[in-house]
Sequence to fold (183 residues):
Amino acid sequence: MAVGQQQFLAGRSARTAAQRAADLLAVLRVDQPDPESVSEVLRAHGERESLRLSADEVAELRQAADALYGVFAAADVQEAALRLNELLAAAHPPRLTTHGGNFDWHLHIDGDDDAPMGEWFLTASCLALAVLLAERQQLPGRICAAPGCGTAFVDLGGGSERRYCSSRCATRQRVAAHRRSRQ
Ligand SMILES: [Zn+2]
Fold:
C-alpha cells in the first residue's frame, strides 16, 4: 500500500472507525460500487485528497463490507459478539504502530502497515465495533428497519434503541403507519 494512503490507516477512536464502516457500507454494498464514491467517503474520513482507489481495492473493500454487514444485521448483542469473534479469529495479534513515526501509537490487528486495503478495513472496523460492544454492552450498529432501506447505521445514543437510519426513514414509517391506521 502506498505511503500516501497511510493517513487513513491511522488510529481513530472506535466511534469514528465505526461510523466510517457504516459510511463505507452505504457506498460499497451496491450493484456496482463506484470507486470515486468510495474514495470520497475515505477522504471525508481523513484520507489524503489525491486518493484514487483501483477496481481491485474496491472489490476487496466490498468483500469486507459484506462481512461487516453481518455484524450490523445481528439481532442482539450475543449474535453480534459471535459474528465479531468469527471475523476476529482471522485477524492478526494486536500490534502497535506509528506508521513510521507519522502518527501517534495506535492498535492494528491487520498483518502489517502494508496490508491489503480490504484486510485493513475489515480488521479496523471489527476492532472498533468490538470495543464499542464491550464498552456499552449494546449493539454498536443496526440495519434500518424501514422496508426497502437496508442502510447500516451506528447507534451510540443512550436509552432506547434507534430503529431507523435517518429522520427521513423514521418519518416515512410514521406516515405509513398513520395511513394504515386510518384504513
Ligand atoms: Zn433508512
The pocket of zinc ion is lined by residues 144, 146, 149, 151, 164-166, 169 (CB under 6 Å).
